[in-house]
Amino acid sequence: MADKQFSHSFSTLQQLAADALAHARKMGATAAGADVSEGCGQSVTVRCGEVETIEYNRDKGLSVSVYLGKRRGYASTSDFSPRAVRETVEAALAIARFTAEDPCSGLPEAEWLALGEQPDLDLYHPWDLSTEDAIALAARCEAAAFAADKRVDNSEGGSVSSQQAQFVSANSLGFMGGYPTSRHYIACSVIAGRADAMQRDDWYSTHRNAKLLETPESIGAKAAARAVARLGAKKIGTGSFSVLFEAPLAAGLLGHFVQAASGGALYRKASFLVDSLGQALFPDFFNLSERPHLSAALASCPFDNEGVRTRAREVVQNGVLQGYFLNVYSGRKLGLPTTANAGGSHNLILQSGGRDTGDLATLVRRMGRGLLVTELLGHGVNYVTGDYSRGAAGFWVENGEIAHPVEEITIAGNLRDMFKNIRAIGSDVERRGSRQTGSILIEGMTVAG
Hints:
Distance between the termini: 56 Å
Order of helices and strands: HEEEHHEEEHEHHEEEHEHEEEHEEE
Shape: globular
Structural class: alpha+beta
Radius of gyration: 24 Å
Oligomer: single chain
Helix content: 10-25%
Largest sheet: 6 strands, antiparallel
């Protein structure tokens, strides 16, 4: 797996992890885990035709967790020398000696680990991109935005980023795994209008394989069209209306659900979804699947951050919550097995129970009257109560058609009610992260102008 992009061979990372575990055993640890990684990449931004930033990054690190019975210590270093590895292990052991015992602490059960051969999920596609070529791509992206509409006359820049990384994870139960990954993107953010009538918007494309990115010209043109569409924005009156979350923002709604259904929030009783397993939280057409083994997907992985084997599962089926998002520790606190979600969720895919609900335009027509949200501001989400309040901008819809853009408004509700009041899920799916969903139409939210 060695690659010219990296400073160390994959076998070197494996040896570093093995050395850390061996020293932990020698020093009296009853169990241990080690993670070794390195990453590199470059990012460039071109603004108004001029190079604004060029950034190179190269990082590496070793982290060690050691256990003395039920006492845990953790330490890390960016120094890969043999002495630094030993000192990092010894620092973790020193911390463990002064840490209180925790009955839920410890490595995963051996039978949960991803031992043996692991699937190749096609996660590594290095981009042989020179700085000059990256600058040219960013410039093309921004130039396309300027060319798309004369009302676009300022820019926050066109950007290109290429990132590669590799890692090894191992523990004293015999698990050792790892692989290289890549992630690249092209983005553009532009400003339309003048003086107090200016509006900004953006677009981006990201993928593990640069060949599958949208073209710079397409990204720039979309950013321009989105910014221009927001010109002439108005405020609206306060009332209870249907709200249609555009697909990129709908993925954020799924993110709120994941946070509320995650083990840390649940065992601390800091979530409105405590004791919700088996409950109908969503309409009966709402189906949410986790698919960690999709080829080349951005959140695919054969094992989680604790080495636990990932598996496909149904998180929500016909509206009913089937499972939480748990790592080993939170699972033990709740008396449940881990769901292999140490490090987060893996390719959540929302489907609408076989219903053909159509694209964004179809959902706008179905909504009839209400608010299409294309931007959210602030972080007004209370996970203990589920209360939700965010600044927003988008478009007012009348008679199934966009009437005019809106800004400086607030949308509010309660996540439990919002989940129940989902009326449609669009087919306009964006695949730019760990959560894949089309636009989501919710009935009966408070909109304040």
